Amino acid sequence: MSRALDILFSCLALIVTSPFIAVCSLIIWAQDGKSPIYRAKRVGKNGEFFIMLKLRSMIWGAEQNQVDSTKSTDNRITPIGKFTRKFKIDEFPQFWNVLRGEMSLVGPRPNVQRETDIYTLAERNLLTVRPGITDIASIVFSDLAQILEPYPDANIAYNQLVRPWKSRLSLVCIENASIKSNIIILYLTAIAVFNRKSALIKINRILAKWNTDEKLQKVALRNTSLTPHPPMGSNDIVEHRKQANHSHGC
User: Fold this and answer.
1) pLDDT tens-digit profile of 194-234?
2) Distance between CA atoms of residues 51 and 62, nearest Å
3) Does pLDDT of 248 surpass 50?
4) What pTM value is reported for the model?
5) Quick one: which of 48, 121, 173, 182 has the most CB atoms within 10 Å?
6) Is the pLDDT of residue 99 over 90?
7) Does residue 61 register a pLDDT over 90?
8) How many domains does the chain have?
9) With helix as H, strand as E and coil as C, how does the chain read?
10) Whole domain around residue 109: which residue ranges?
11) Distance from C-alpha of 169 to C-alpha of 131, rounded to nearest angstrom
């Protein structure tokens, strides 16, 4: 039934969003004459690779420097890219990935191999389901670029500040997945674009209903500063991305 919801909603979403995709694609192409579609290699269900589609929000060839976590002032982001990122328009082409069965509407965001290679054993459960366009973690950390802004190494800052909680939230969503919860998460994703605080309060109520620990609920409200923390299943704070997953605790 969840797959049926994915197909139905994606078809409708592509019809509704196609004018936005077309207009933004034309503007992106006009700025440098390069393809407006970015084809990102990501790790999907069971560790299989797939190509995730996005409207290109950065300069051509931006991925070559291997900076996977993007700051808000990253000079690779184009003017139209700032707009499409703000309103999540750059993610619209991923409804095609959903139709193809590579992604779901709701699920953990797909990651690059450089990140999945250092997943702990606990985090590898994120790869047991199809990745999604959105989930609770995506809403809670929708300001990722702003979080990373003060730090010299965005990749390490992501692993120390965001990954520990994002993985937990995504796994909680997997454990409590249902058609009802998926519809609620889709609704909250739309609400968060215009009123993020309201969406976070509603998410906190959901997490309390799911009996998650109070610390995770507190972080999800985003009222306090994030501090370095080990990823779930580990006792060590990530210092570099070359840490092998077998060095982490269970």
Assistant:
1) 999 999 999 999 999 999 999 999 999 999 999 999 999 99
2) 17
3) no
4) 0.89
5) 173
6) yes
7) no
8) 1
9) CHHHHHHHHHHHHHHHHHHHHHHHHHHHHHHHCCCCEEEEEEECHHHCEEEEEEECCECCCHHHHCCCCCCCCCCCECHHHHHHHHCCHHHCCHHHHHHCCCCEEECCCCECHHHHCCCCCCHHHHHHCCCEEECHHHHHCCCHHHHHCCCCCHHHHHHHHHHHHHHHHHHHHHHCCCHHHHHHHHHHHHHHHHCHHHHHHHHHHHHHHCCCCHHHHHHHHCCCCCCCCCCCCCCCCCCCCCCCHHHCCC
10) 2-247
11) 14
CA-based nearest residue to 134, from 199, 70, 71: 199
Contact 129, 101 (CB under 8 A): no
pLDDT of residue 242: 66
At 1 the pLDDT is 57
| Residue 213 token pair | 């620990």
